[in-house]
Amino acid sequence: AQKVTQAQTEISVVEKEDVTLDCVYETRDTTYYLFWYKQPPSGELVFLIRRNSFDEQNEISGRYSWNFQKSTSSFNFTITASQVVDSAVYFCALRLRSGNTPLVFGKGTRLSVIA
Amino acid sequence: NAGVTQTPKFRVLKTGQSMTLLCAQDMNHEYMYWYRQDPGMGLRLIHYSVGEGTTAKGEVPDGYNVSRLKKQNFLLGLESAAPSQTSVYFCASTLGLFGGYTFGSGTRLTVV
Q1: What is the per-residue pLDDT across B27-73, written as a single tens digit (0 to 9) for each?
Q2: Closest CA in chain B for residue A7
Q3: Whole-angstrom Cα distance, residue B75 to residue A68?
Q4: Collapsed DSSP state (helix, strand, coil) of residue A91
Q5: What are the residues whose beta carbons fall under 8 Å from the beta carbon of A55, sequence distance 6 or more?
Q6: Fewest Cβ atoms closer than 10 Å to its Cβ: which of A39, A47, B45, B46?
Q7: CB atoms within 10 A of CB A33
Q8: Residue B38 to residue B106: CA distance in whole angstroms
Q9: Is the bond preceding residue A102 a cis peptide, omega within 30 degrees?
Q10: Is residue B50 left, alpha or beta, with left meaning phi > 0 and alpha meaning psi from -120 to 50?
Q11: Which residues is A89 bridged to in the sheet?
């Protein structure tokens, strides 16, 4: 069975600091997909990124970057120069390619960015 | 483009009452899901559907039933509500098996 662990329950940073959210996953499958979602205070869930297990290139999108390392089964998310609008709960998720297995989510990390 | 619409947005039930949560998507998505979100627990899968007329159990299916009679709708039913079912319920859909999910805005259910 697959599992996603987000060890950081809550993080607080001061605006403009960089912050990294950790995600560690477990699976015996060799083909899978990793995701990050953002849940701002308004409550909706927003898709941020999908990464497949064969693509270990780091991804950068503006102030957001993702570091995927199969050797450590990690898919970490870094926000550079954080802003108050980044305050949200962030979820990491895993989906296997085999079968019809749906997304399995971590428990989330609550990020608070203080002005 | 409405995306995924959940109704109602809020509901208070008394223990033992029944209700149905409706999820509707207008994106012709094949796959639909019901999750519940509880503090410190993340999102846990209740039931899901891989196409019209199909349903399957997720991680926490007890106390819930679902139906997918039409491709665009996925209904979640509580036959006899219990306080343990107090939660925020999210519906999601996706076109392909491995794409990102599109989520509804959630239903906050309180069972007293």
Answers
A1: 999 999 999 999 888 899 999 999 999 999 999 999 999 999 999 99
A2: B40
A3: 36
A4: strand
A5: A68
A6: A47
A7: 18
A8: 12
A9: no
A10: alpha
A11: A39, A110
